[in-house]
Amino acid sequence: MKRLLRSLLPLAAALPLALFPAAQAQIAGPAPAQEKPLQYQLANGMTVIIKPDRRAPTAVHMVYVRVGAMDEVDGTTGVAHVLEHMMFKGTPTIKPGEFSRRVAALGGRENAFTTRDQTGYFQQIPASRLEDVMRLEADRFANNQWPDDEFKRELEVVKEERRTRTEDNPRGLLYEQLSATVYQANPYRRPVVGWMSDLDAMTPQDAREFFRRWYVPANAAVIIAGDVDPAKVRALVDKYYGSIPSRTLPPRKPREEPAQNGMRRVEFKAPAEQSYVALAFKVPQLRSFEKTPENDDALALTVLSGVLDGYEGARLDRALTQGPDRVADSVDAGNGLWGRGPQLFTLSGVPAAGKTPEQVEAGLRAQVARVAREGVSEAELQRVKTRWIAGEIYKLDSVMNQARELGSAWVMGLPIDADERLMARLREVTPEQVKSVAARYFGDEQLTVGILRPLPVDPNRKPRTPAVQLRH
Question: Would you indicate the residue range of the signal peptide (predicted)?
Answer without folding.
Answer: 1-25
